[in-house]
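Action item from last week, closing it out:
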Amino acid sequence: MDKNVDVPFIAMTLGVVSFLIVFFVYLFQMSADIPRFYVIPLTGLAALAFGSLIGFLYANFGDETERFGAALKAVNGLIAGFTLADATQTDGIIRTVLRSISYAAGLNGQRGLILVVIIACASAGILFMYQFKRLYLNRAQAEVDHRIEEETTYNANDPSVVGRLQEYWKPSGQESTQATNDIRKWLDSHALDTVAVPTFINGSYAAERAQCVADLKIS
C-alpha cells in the first residue's frame, strides 16, 4: 500500500462529510422545530460508535483473536441471526425502534432517513476503526510487545535462534522458496507485513524470531 495514502483519514473524512450532509438536510426540514433535530445526530453518533466496535473486533490480531473471540461471535450472531430474523417481522424490535426514533425526530413514523443515517454512520465507523487499528494500533502494539519481550526474555544477539532460522531459510546456502513463503506468511499474520525476510532474520527482532522458530517448529 502507498504510504502516502492516509486511508483512516480518508475514511473518517468521508464519514464526517456524509454525516454533515444528512444533518443539514434534516436541519433544513426541521427548522420550525429546533429541539427535535438533536435526535438524528445522536442516533448517528450511536451508530458510529457501534460500527467502530465492530471494526475493532474484526481487526484483532495475535492473542487478541482469542481474547475477544466471544465478543466477535456475539456480534456475528447479532448481525446474521437476530437482525435478519427480526427484520422480516412487521412488528419486530428493529422496526419498532426505527419508528420510535422517527416520531421522536418529528418525522411522523417515516423511517427512511433514520435508516440512512444509521447505515452511513455505522459503515464509516467500521471502515475507520478497522483501517486505523490494522495500519496503526496493531503495529504500535506489536512494537511495544517486541520491546517488552526482548527486554525480559530474549537476547537480541541469540546465535542459536538466528542460526536455526538462517539454516531454515537458506539450507546449503540456497534460498528455499517454501521457507521464504512460510516466514512471509508468519510475518503477515503478526503485523510485520512491511518487514522483509532478510531484515527480519538479521535485524533487531529477537522476540519475533524466537516466536517464529517456535511456531514453525524449526529445529
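Closing note: The two ends are 35 Å apart (CA to CA).
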